[in-house]
Amino acid sequence: MTMNQHYDVIIIGAGPAGTACALGLRNAGLRVAIIDKHIFPRDKVCGDAIPGRAIKCLQAMNPAFGAAVRSFPEKLVTQRTRCYYKGKQLEFSWSLEAYTATRMDFDHFLFSLVKSHTNTTVLEGVEVKQINSTDNGYILTTKNDNSTLDCTLLIGADGVNGLSAKRLAGYQMDRRHHVAAVRAYYTGVAGMEDNCTEIYFDKKYLPGYLWVFPIKGGLVNVGLGILSAELVRHHIDVKKAFYDFIDRSPILKSRFKDAVPVGPLQGCGLPLGSRWVQMSGDRFLLAGDAASLIDPVSGDGIGNAVLSGKLAAEQAIRCFQSGNFSAAYMKTYEQELYRMVGAEMGRKAGVLKWMSKMPLLFELAFYVGQHRAIRNFIK
Questions:
Q1: Backbone angles phi, psi at 119, to 5 degrees
Q2: HSE-up of 316 (CA within 13 Å, CB side)?
Q3: Residues 62-118: tens digit of each pLDDT
Q4: Which segments does the entry list as coiled coil (predicted)?
């Protein structure tokens, strides 16, 4: 890599938030680079659910992006979610289109859109080890060969464990707003329906849940997520809990009798949007998991990642048009994001709290949810 390359915008992280941002900057006339420590395609531990919000945002940026994701061959279309608790079940039908696909395939697809539809400089297999601020932006030093890149505006989309959130916003994990999750792939799970995702609850592990999501080709994504504060409080090993959860459920135990794991059980951390963290400052913005935007109830991060990437691109364009990169001006990005998802996050944070502290209310909600009107309200 050539030393001291300058860009107007550098995006760290080529997941859904970073790629959405690069797509949003395609016609801005700016020199943009996107950096990721991995070479794509790469795996990513996730539930692999692609919600309607992500598709809607891609469509809004460019109808061609919406058409591309709708014709993406590795997806399954999901129309329903079925929830199970104590022998009862609730089923929800979704009005917005939604898909499932492995993150290896979906993230690679989004990255391919960046390569084919933008002039973004793509730097794969390049890890940033140091971020230093200057009067005019940031200097990034790479781990690979100590090469440096500098930019006027930095967008951190490298996840909760990435360098951006820690270095730029001083991120520290709060177990009350963080989920520990594990995920494995299986084949041979009995009774799967391609257009239906499944959620299972167990009083022992509230406010967590186990998901069973169909993936194209007979693959099934199975995972368990539990609030980190509850893991510590009850001394729970989340990997052991995964197998215990399946064993405790007569339905799951029967359906997994002949199931075969494909690869190991892997873990990840999910920074919830149940608290509003710093997402911007002088000459920087954070997007996606780096901004702690995961839905506190569903655990979905892709929808808000794509949305925040889109909004970060719009803010970046405003900054260059006005010549204003101050922390005060960057707050416009946070305000717009809060306007779009803040109230929703607040409501769901409340649901997470009463699921944790008042499981009887959760049981009551499941009971009254048998009525269609209540089900529509919950949805």
A1: -100, 20
A2: 35
A3: 999 999 999 999 999 999 999 999 888 888 888 888 999 999 999 999 999 999 999
A4: none
Residues in the chain: 379
5-79+98-173+275-348: what CATH class?
alpha beta
SS3 256: coil
pLDDT at 2: 52
C-alpha separations of 137 from 149, 199, 321, 366 in Å: 11, 45, 16, 52
φ/ψ region of 292 (left if φ > 0, alpha if ψ in -120 to 50, else beta) reads: left
Q: Are 89 and 207 in contact (CB under 8 A)?
A: no
Intrachain domains 5-79+98-173+275-348 and 175-272+355-378 with the same fold: no
d(CA 106, CA 209): 24
Task: Tell me the two tokens of residue 172.
Answer: 């520290």
Q: Which residue has the tokens 């898909």?
A: 99
Query: Whole-angstrom Cα distance, residue 21 to residue 148?
Result: 22
Q: Compute how many other C-beta atoms are within 10 angstroms of the C-beta atom of residue 226.
A: 23
Query: Does 354 score more than 80 pLDDT?
Result: no
Write phi, then psi, for 369 (nearest 5 degrees). -65, -10
pLDDT of 11 reads: 99
CA 187 to centroid of chain Cα atoms: 24
Residue-range domain boundaries for the chain: 5-79+98-173+275-348, 175-272+355-378
Within 10 Å of residue 258's Cβ, how many Cβ atoms?
10
Q: Which residues pair with 89 in a beta bridge?
A: 84
- Report whether pLDDT(372) > 90: no
Q: Which helix (H) or strand (E) holds 52?
A: helix 52-61
Q: Considering Cα of 100, then 105, then 106, then 107, what sign does the dihedral take?
A: positive
CATH class of 175-272+355-378: alpha beta
Residue with tokens 């996840």: 159
A 10 A CB-CB count for 1 gives 12
